[in-house]
Amino acid sequence: MYMINKGLGKEEHRMKKSSFFRLIFVFVLIYIFLVSIQLMSSSLKLFGKGFADNLIGSTSNAFVGLFIGILATSIIQSSSATTSIVVGLVAAHTITVRNAIPVVMGANIGTTVTNVLVSLGHVTRKDEFKRAFGGAFVHDCFNLLAVIILLPVELATHFLERTAIWFSNGFADIGGMKILSPLKVAVQPTVALITRLLFNSPILVLIFALVILFVSLRFFVMNMRRLAFSKAEVFLDSYIFRTPLTSLTFGMILTALVQSSSVTTSLVVPLVGAGLLTIEKIFPYTLGANIGTTVTAILASLVTNNPIAIAIAGVHLLFNLCGICIIYPMKRIPISLAKGIASFCANNRKFAVLYILILFYIIPFIIIVLAR
Q1: Sign of the torsion angle spanned by Cα atoms 217, 228, 285, 127
Q2: Are 206 and 40 in contact (CB under 8 A)?
Q3: CA atoms of 293 and 81, how far apart (whole Å)
Q4: CB–CB of 81/45 below 8 Å?
Q5: Looking at the 3D structure of the chain, how many domains does it have?
Q6: Which domain covers residue 121, as residue numbers?
Q7: How far, in Å, CA of 277 to CA of 237, rounded?
């Protein structure tokens, strides 16, 4: 009996040790994943930062402005960066608040391209891809519905513009402050080193980013399955995603800290793919991320001490808050849409790639070219 217990004790110790090293490996994979996202963003910014500046500055038509926001954000992969550019252009009187509002709405849609790209890392495994794509697409659904509802209302009443300008007058003399992003502190040295090793070539950096993105996702999901799966699920359900409010608050705070909704929403896509989380659980989290991402533009606007620039940052916040108030009570619509589209794309996986190309790049490009 003693020998049996001793043998069981050794086996339990071995399993705990194996789980510990596997957990360390998971954190390493998360770091690599974050590096890949940052590399991808950096490479696309090298391609398109100046293009985005010129593109946004040329808008005058509301409908075209919406697609300019989608395309610019899809290129530089950051709604925070797009809205910060818009804030600067408004402060310099290059564009008006009224013309800038559709661009901000488009930026909300464009920022979701990163999550959908991340979901493609699961494309070779049908059920996993179905869950991951649904987890990514639910963010798109919310932003698309918010624009469909609020853009016509804004064009008819200009309530976002009027409300934001009224609020902004009280913040004109506050001055700006900067929040240090832990994400940038952690990954930027590695990103800078890899970029130098790849000769600062945007193409090479982008290819390398996509390779390590898919590899890190593959091993992340494999290791999450081999760890104490039920314990991880219980932890997520009991603490971070316990209620819609805690989920929303966590998404908002995390995004405000790392200053990138693309990163925070992309982080949960592999967890949905692995079956640790559901679309219902992460939906409030993505809404919180939408609020958190407005912090960067608000801080950028406060630095200008320009009430008009502060107003456009306020529009971004008000748009997301209004969208949540309208859409969350009927959350079954975006969740059902996400599940339906995910199921279709899981059976016809080429449509997932076509969706990315058509919505985020081809349609905006065609509309912008035709409008000139």
Answers
A1: positive
A2: yes
A3: 10
A4: yes
A5: 1
A6: 49-182+226-371
A7: 8
32 domain residue, yes or no: no
CA distance 82 to 59: 14
The chain-wide mean pLDDT, for the chain, equals: 81
Cα 121 from Cα 30, distance rounded (Å): 14
- Residue type at position 324: I
Whether 57 maps to a domain, the answer reads yes
What is the rounded distance in angstroms from the CA atom of residue 346 to the CA atom of residue 342? Answer: 6
Q: Using alpha carbons only, give the angle 351, 74, 79 rounded to the nearest 5 degrees.
A: 130
Residue partners of 283: CB distance under 8 A and separation at least 6? 138, 142, 244, 247, 331, 334, 335
192 in a domain, yes or no? no
pTM: 0.80
Question: pLDDT, tens digit, for every residue of 116-174?
Answer: 989 998 888 899 999 999 999 999 999 999 999 999 999 999 999 888 888 777 665 55
Predicted confidence band of residue 88 (pLDDT cuts 50, 70, 90): confident
Question: Does 93 have pLDDT greater than 50?
Answer: yes
Query: Cα torsion at 175, 180, 181, 185 (round to 10°)?
Result: 150
**Which of 5-9, 12-16, 19-23, 352-356 has maximum average pLDDT?**
352-356
Q: With 0-12 CB in 10 A as exposed, 13-18 as middle and 19+ as buried, what is 297?
A: buried
Handedness of CA 23, 24, 25, 31 (dihedral sign): positive
Q: Is residue 4 in a domain? A: no
